[in-house]
Amino acid sequence: MGQISNRVFADTTEDSSTSSGHRGHRRTFEIKSPAASAGSYDFVSARPPGKKTNILESVGHLVKSCLGGGVVAIHESYKACGLWTSMGLTIFIGFLISYCMYMIAKSAQRLYGRLHIATMSYPDVAEAAIAICPFPKIRKYSKCLRYAVDFTICVDLFGSCCVYQVVICRTIKQLVEGTDTVTLEGNPPLRMYILMLLVPCILICMITTLKYLAPFSILADIFLLILAIATIYYGCTFSKVSMFEMPAFKNMPGLFEFLGVCVFSMEGVGATMAIENNMKEPQKIGRVLALGMSVVVGIVFVIGTFGYWGFGEDSKSPVTLNFPFTAFSIALKVFMAVIIYVTFALNFWVPFDLVWYYIKKRYPPTKYWFWERVYRGSFVIVITLIAFIFPNVSSFIGLLGSFCLSNMGFIYPACIELCVEWDSPGLGFMKWRLIKWILICIFGVFLGIFGTYTNAKELIRQTF
């Protein structure tokens, strides 16, 4: 659910002139000051006036931005990988994600001074880093990296919509049948629930103004907090063995499933620049990331650990399916289905807004209203068909995390910082910065190739 919040925050708080990451392209990026004197540019004073967030508010935005829909399935990835390995890797990946987010923000602040631009989006930073990099032969490909970032955002968010549909339908199916297990079969089967959800999803996606939807992201944050507490309670109540008796590690396919889901659950790199652009003291973005990501890692850690420990090898996704049929847990399940239904529209809004920017050029302005709704409905139909074909939550999330966020969360930030810092401050003692960039890229490529293959293979196996 947090995956939507980051883009919602970006689009509802940024000035339209600074939201080019989703709405178009800036002018050509040109160096106005050399790196040595770039620090003299006061980008904070140059920003347009408006309500700015303090550190605590920024931490709140970061937390709701990072907690993705994968958090309701993180316990199942713990089951696939093994409890103790998953616990350790959750902390490691959380640190690595937060550091890569910091790389993006600091690279942007270096670019502000060189370009005399006060605010930038993530796609802006990606394009500008290549456009002014010290390697002349690759500067002409700056737009390519921007398009790559935009494409990754679209695949990530449209794919998340597929996951949300499956989560909603699995929850509704359990409530209707009143059983502890949820399978593809039944009367009606799960896929029929997905088809029945098509019309409601089309209707809510016809809302084109975010102000009617954004308040629900606050309810989603409250729900996640309640969910974490409920998972601890039910996990402790239903656990049958000691935590030390749980398997530490299972197998490599399970490891890659876990990595994909874990990254998907905590990644908030798309929100980093929106938060930084709206801070009163953007120089303190590092402090915000440290505090906010500590909370994010804590919630993911709790739901994953107690969800798997409490419900064991029979645990299912979303985690609420494992809760007993009491008045409280039933209310929690209903509330989750409603919240995810609304956040489906929030999640859909941003990638469609990006795609519509390019599509609408084919039509006269007088036809925009009609064709926008035609394409909105068409995209929801495609999303529903994909969810109909692949109604598996955990593997789908793992695939999205491995394919999209290995690039957006690790490879792109490393490449951006490499281009920005190559000349100043340089590679450092024994070229330690270069080694750092290479290691992060290797991890991203490793996750992208093996994680995508493993999760795609498992998704296909479970489907066909």
Written account of the structure:
There is one protein chain. The protein contains 19 helices and no strands. It has 464 residues and is mainly alpha-helical. The chain has a single domain (2-9, 44-463), classed as Up-down Bundle (Amino acid/polyamine transporter I).
Main β-sheet description: none
The CATH top-level class label: Mainly Alpha
Tally of helical segments: 19
Q: How many distinct domains?
A: 1
Counting helices, strands and paired strands, the structural category is mainly alpha
What's the mean pLDDT score? 88
Helical amount? over 70%
| Straight-line distance between termini | 28 Å
Number of strands: 0
**Gyration radius, in Å:** 22 Å
**What amount of the residues lies in strands?**
under 5%
What is the CATH T-level topology?
Amino acid/polyamine transporter I
CATH architecture term: Up-down Bundle
Parts with pLDDT < 50 across at least 5 consecutive residues: 2-24
Structural shape: globular
InterPro entries: AA_transpt_TM
Domain Amino acid transporter transmembrane: 52-453
Subcellular location: Membrane
Protein name: Proton-coupled amino acid transporter 3 isoform X2
